[in-house]
Structures are given as structure tokens and as C-alpha cells.
Amino acid sequence: MELGVVIVILVALGFDYVNGFHDAANSIATVVSTRVLSPRMAVAWAAFFNFVAFLVFGTHVANTIAKDVVTQDVLSIGVVFAGLIGAIGWDLLTFYLGLPTSSSHALVGGIAGAAVAAHGTHVLVTSGLRKIGVFIVLSPLIGLALGMILMLIIMRTFHRYKKVERLNRGFRRGQLISAAAFSLGHGANDAQKTMGIILAVLIASHHVSANSGVPLWVVLCAHTAIGLGTFTGGWRIVKTMGSKITRLQPVGGVAAETAAAATLFFTSAAGIPVSTTHTITGAIVGVGATRRLSAVRWGIAGRVLWAWVLTIPGAFGLAYVTSLLVRAFA
Amino acid sequence: MKRDRRALVFLIFAAVCALLVPIAEPGHRWVAEVTGLTYVVLAAASALDAWSRSRS
Lengths: 330, 56
What we know:
The complex is a heterodimer of chains A (about 325) and B (about 55).
Chain A: H1 3-33, H2 39-52, H3 60-67, H4 77-97, H5 103-119, H6 126-158, H7 164-204, H8 216-231, H9 236-244, H10 250-269, H11 276-289, H12 298-329
Helix pairs in contact in A: 1-2, 1-4, 1-7, 1-8, 1-9, 2-7, 2-8, 3-7, 4-5, 4-12, 5-12, 6-10, 6-11, 7-8, 7-10, 10-11
Chain B: H1 5-23, H2 29-55
């Protein structure tokens, strides 16, 4: 395997690691903020389920990333490298600012920006981008509605229950399962994006055929990288997700994580790359809105919304410039 | 009666879903339709809840 291919694969795995690091907050924020697990135990729990996700889900999302963002023939090693640098740059910038933006959309924006800089706008696959674009909006809305409905069902079921302490203990245990389910969905959807990138590089460098599936070693490497990233996870975003948007009790954590996990299971099975960040944020807002709208801190939610809107253009711009630099120096 | 802001927000979400229906891929249109319909139901439930609270 050529040195260029190896470098791009390592950068892709680095992106996966940063993704796990950046999105660790999504998996563990509610478990930590409701004090069900200590931060150290929570990251270990999430990292384990991130890793085992490859046993449960297929690789539909990987194929969407490899084949439905830009036309496959323009995905050279230089384009993928520039796209990854744009996405990682955007992720690190938003991580520094403490904003829970989407690594997935940074990746889509990065690959699109690098390919457009090298070949022009005609290389964009509009149907694939339309699918991704529609679910940028739909995934938090689905998470919000499901989070609210689940919370209402739980409240309706248990509102006459007198032993509050016992009930809380039950939901604390339940949160272990819902957090595991969410981590499974996170591992499935997010690790697959890196697999898609590595698959594209392997196809471009003729190491596998264009119709080939994702090799097992790629699947294992991607899940290991995201699991390690989660294990060493960041804490700035945990704070925003776990307490700044709305305060959560164990019961709310169960509802939010279950709603987000259900959304991720559906989209992973359907091959749609969605943002785990968008989904869990929507679900947390949904749970908060069962009390009243003022329970949600809309100022913070609005700041998060702006970060979402800017993610694809931001990563696109960074990757565009990187692609021009790569072409100038290559 | 006090205006129910939550119902209004849910109706805006339902309108957003309706706008996404023609843009979505044919195979995924049902997702936007079902989500939009869910928000209409949630808006109605929220408005009824606010109405019953204002009466009691």
C-alpha cells in the first residue's frame, strides 16, 4: 500500500478518534449530569458500546458517504485528505468554543469543499446531498418529538406511583441501558462515516473494486478509533449538553437517550448519515418541553442552532482552501 | 385565555416538515409526513392542555 494511502487512512482514523472525543458528551452527558455513573465509568461504558456497534449494524451509511456526496471518480487521495483536514479543523474549532456541532456534517462539508475546489460544482451528487440535507433538519425534530412522547408516556404511567425514591433508582438503572443503546447508535452511525471515507480511498487507489463492500479490517479500525476517542472524551461539551440546555432527572435521561437511540437505529439501518449531536440535543429539548417551554434555555439552544447552520459551510470553506494548497504544493 | 406558545412552536415544526416533503427522496417522504403529523397532534394536545389549565 502506498505511503499516501496509509497517511490518508491514518488521518481518517484520526478524524474518527476526534469524533469520538468530540461526541463523547452526547453519549454520556445525561448519565453524568444525573450522577448515575462517575465520569470515568461513563466514558468506559460508552466506549465499549461504541466499539461493539459493528456487530449489530450493517455498513449502509459508509456506502452513502463513499458514493453519494461527490461522484466517486473525483475522490482522489488529495481530495479526501483536504476534506478530512477541513472537517477536523472545524471540529477542533467548535470543540475549543464548546459548541456541540456535528462531526458528520463537517465531514460531508469537507469532502464536498475539497472536491469542488479540485473539480468544480458539477461533481456534487445532488440526490445524496438532498437526502443528507433533509435529515439535517429532520433528525433533531424526530428526536424532539420522540423524546417528548416518551416522557409523556412515562409521566402518564407512573404519575400515581408513591415510592418516588424507588422509582428514581429504577430510572437510574434504566439509564444505563438507554445510554448503552445511544452509544450503540452513535458507534454505528458515526464510525461508518470514517469507514466510508477509507472505502473511497481504497477504491480510488484500486485496492478494492468500486462495487466492493467495506473490508473487515476497516470496520474494526474505525470502531476502535471512535471507541478510544470516546474513552478519552472531552468535557467542555458535556457541560453544555448535560445541564445548560435543560436540567435533567434520571427519568428525563432515559426518555432522551431512548428517543435518540431509536432515531439513530432507524437512520443507520436506512443508510442515512445523521448527526448524533443533533438527535440527542433535539431529544433533550423535547424532554424539557414537557414541563414548559421556558424549561429549555433557548439562548443556548439558539447558539447551538447557529453552529449547526455554519458547520457545512465552515468545513466546506476550510477544505476548499486546504484542497487549493494541496494542489499548489503537490 | 393565555396564548399557548408550545402549540405554536409545534405548528411551526409541522410546517417545516411539510416543506421538507417535496424536497425529500421519494423513499423517505413518509418520514417527513409522519413527523409533521406527529407535531400537529402534539400541538393540538398542548393547546388542549393549556385550555384545560386556564379553566381550572
